[in-house]
Amino acid sequence: MSPPLPKAIPDFERMTAPFNMMQMVADRDMAYDFFTGVLGFETFYKGKPYTAKTPTPTPIGIPLSLTTSVPYRAGIVYPVAGEFGRMEMIEVMGLDGFDYSDQCEAPNLGILAVRYPVEDIDQARATVLRRGGQLWRDVSQVVIGDMGEVSLFSVKTPDGAIMQFFAP
Predict the structure, then answer these.
(1) Cα–Cα dist 119/43, whole Å
(2) Nearest-CA neighbor of 26 among 155, 164, 161?
(3) Is the CATH number 3.10.180 carried by domain 1-97?
(4) Within 10 Å of residue 45's Cβ, how many Cβ atoms?
(5) CA distance 75 to 32
(6) With bands split at pLDDT 50, 70 and 90, how would you rate the model's confidence at 101?
(7) What are the sequence ranges of the domains in the chain?
(8) If DSSP states are collapsed to H, E and C, what string results for the chain?
(9) Fold assignment, 98-168
(10) How many CA atoms lie within 13 A of 121 on its CB side?
(11) Model confidence over 7-63: pLDDT tens digits?
(12) Burial class (CB in 10 A: 0-12, 13-18, 19+), 10
């Protein structure tokens, strides 16, 4: 691999397929409550604040020199139990940064939305509304690559991320 990874990262022979999406959130508990209470996702993991015992590289941007003093807490949920489709949310506690949540709209750089298939789009929409959620974009017909035309609606998480639900 070029350039080589830092020595603190163990050797590996191959990478796996992506198994979850991760988003940084302002408040892990608020995001967790949205995913479980409004979207109906189930819990895979909900941890206590964590601080590394020794300086450790992380994929979440905490400077190496601060990993022993700046805690973070994570939650992982999924709509269907299994290895793929999980949503991970991480709150870094004690570091201030910039809030770009108002820019979660096209055009943008990076991933614009996370899409989940549902069996019945009208039932999924009604369930989200019944649980207190709000639609960001109501049901419409869109074309998604090889899937062709689907019915799709969108909601925004408390941190502005777009979650889309679609059915053939």
Answers:
(1) 21
(2) 161
(3) yes
(4) 10
(5) 7
(6) confident
(7) 1-97, 98-168
(8) CCCCCCCCCCCCCCCCCCCEEEEECCCHHHHHHHHHHHCCCEEEEECCCECCCCCCCCCCCCCHHHCCCCCEEEEEEECCCCCCCEEEEEEECCCCCCCCHHHCCCCCCCCCEEEEECCCHHHHHHHHHHCCCCCCEEEEEEEEHHHEEEEEEEEECCCCCEEEEEEC
(9) 2,3-Dihydroxybiphenyl 1,2-Dioxygenase; domain 1 (3.10.180)
(10) 17
(11) 767 777 776 666 678 999 999 999 999 999 999 999 999 999 999 999 999 888 899
(12) exposed
Residue owning tokens 């080589």: 4
Cα(97)–Cα(90) distance, rounded to whole angstroms?
14
Q: Which tokens belong to 119?
A: 């069996």
The length of the chain, given as a count of residues: 168
**Selection from 79, 86, 155, 150 nearest residue 121 by Cα:** 150
Amino acid at 62: I
